[in-house]
From TrEMBL:
The keyword Lipid metabolism does not apply. This is Ribonucleases p mrp protein subunit pop1 containing protein. InterPro entries: Pop1 (IPR039182), POP1_C (IPR055079), Pop1_N (IPR009723), POPLD_dom (IPR012590). Keywords: Nucleus, tRNA processing. Pfam families: POP1_C, POP1_N, POPLD. The lineage of its organism: Eukaryota, Sar, Alveolata, Ciliophora, Intramacronucleata. Its main location: nucleus. Residues 38-113, 120-187 form the Pop1 N-terminal domain. GO terms for cellular component: nucleolar ribonuclease P complex; ribonuclease MRP complex.
Amino acid sequence: MRDKRKDLYQINNDPYLKSIQPDKTTGAIPQFINIHKFLESRAYELRHFTNILQNKYTSKLEHQLLPKHMRRRAMAHNYYRIPLRIRFKSLMEIQPSEPEILSRSRCRKHRRKLRFLLNQYEMRQRQHKWTESHVWHAKRFRMKEFWGYKVAYKSNDKSGRTVYRLCQRNSACIYDQSYMQTLMIEGQEHYNRIIKSLDLKECNQVQVRWINNEYSQPEFPLTFVLFKEQRQVLVTFHPANVVDAQNYFKGRNYQFSNLNMNTLQIMSQNCSIQHIFNVLEPLCDEESSKSIQLLSNMLFDQTRINNNEILVFNVKTEELKKNFRMNERVFNYESAAINQQNQTQAQEELRQQINLNGMNLKPIKWIGTQRTTFTHRKDNQRNKIKHLIVKLKKMKEQHDSNRAEKLLKLNNKIRCQNNDNDLKMKDETESETLDYTTVIIYKNQYQLSNNFGASFQILIPQGYGLNLLRRFVYSGCKPIGLKEYLAINMEVMNPVYPFDYLQTQTGQKQGVVKAHQDLEIYCKRPASKRINYQVYNFSNPFLQKFKLNQAQKFINLFSYSRGVAQSGAMIFLPDQNDIIQLKNASLKHMWNLEERKFETSSKNKKFNFEYALISGNCFNLSKNDLSSVQKIKNGEMKYDLKIFKSKDSLELQTSEQLKRKSIGYITRGAYSQIRGKSIGIGLVEQNLFNEYKIDAGFKGLRLNGNGYLLLIRNANSLRYLPFICYDK
């Protein structure tokens, strides 16, 4: 088979052939040969010939190129069977080099080799981190990228309506929120300063504080757990605010350390405490088992535990590490049934025993153990992996020597600071000697309505989150993803950060990401089969904009007639004529409030072209359009936007203003399967809404004396839908 690759040797560059060519002026052929040029050209040919022989044009190794009568079995494993004349060259090929180990292999067969497994595991977490239960969730859920993490988004089975039944009846749902970030602030001075600055109370409750922005408006929340005797403060916050939270504490000279803790949230009407008792009772030590028995004495009543009240339990690490297949424990309600007086006594004893002072002044253990990557492999394979890990570490130390020195300096500083404190955090070597692990449970502030009960937050150190999650699942809890979690909060009308908090900077960033995803889907459709929002006079169909310097307010909206409120719909104030038309429509079963269409000179076909100029994403563009986009970006051509207002925003140009005054948007809207009608969470300007409430009483815009009438218009419709807002 011929080699189709180009030859590096070119005849035109031969000095001898150039000397033989006839003269351009006279055309005479030279009569003598230049010996130096002749030898130089022959040496060039010989050098080129030897280079071709040395180059390898096949992907096979040297011992694979031998003839059949010279081949031996297991030649790749036993190098003594390779002939001596090619043994050194073949060993150099078999030996793994540094770029081969550090680079991504091409096929799955290479990736599953032992020397590549550890490297591949680390490379997967370069862009998006994995939670401890990532592999467990990846087999059962559809994973999506949020806030730098791989999050379980949707369950693979059809469990949309069953989630509501399990939360409202004799079961529970559990959601893994291990992507939440945690910080620990230590020291007497820092403890006193943070209490005074944020007005925190030294009590047995979780406290939430909102950090304001430049315009003195709330920006992001921080949850604080105070440990009075240890003089420690545990802070949890959303991963979208990692930089903001760290800058907030660094700017005020607070010394903190990062903790990778696992967080679980369990939701149920009346079975949350039962599942907690069922899972933790066989794991607790002698002191914690006495206090957890008080939960059964209270008949597992959730209402007897106050909102934000904290419960601390010490769990045996040996029992927690054991394999857990199925929990066969059965509750004996007859033995737990006691009178009302004993229930109140048990409630007081529970508050006295379960507190933040620890169980008999035991130090709270925060640092967990990390699970090894290859625990499922055999012993002989583990030994091979250990040797390969040593080789990888030696190779990486040569390139990362400066980074290792910096890490050593930082570790020495942290150890010196911990030695000066009264209560020291336990190191990894000391954590193995401890026989217990601290688990913190607290009840969330909001009380779920519509028979959804309450939700409890569970905090456990790193290394034990997956095992505890499996125990709750085998106890009877249904694991859910982010989509089901948002659906439950939608039924309860509870806003979720940062999806509903669009007035904050993190909410706007989240909205921009979602807007670009919707725009990609919109641009992939043909121009004849997509909505022209300029004709509908809707300027913000993809991204809702709020003013950061104005106060916003959340309202709960319920539909008055047919129609579903979509996310991103606009909220308008009605007139007195709308009330009259609504009363007539209730008799005739009609509703004719519509916005008239507008004629625009811009064509919907230019939408992809202008979106490519703004974002750089090209969808369904011809070659001429692609070339013109590059010319406009380079400054060779000029183009005036006809659809978008500016290059920095996704707002569309509209010809005229709307008839009615808009006061906000719907952050999330859906059809409620429990109520049988549409619901929505709205975010409106507080001043305009308060003025409307005052005027509604005089103008008769209130319905049945309780609700306020508001009009909602979706982005893909001209019709105004009547919704009722119940606000105190």
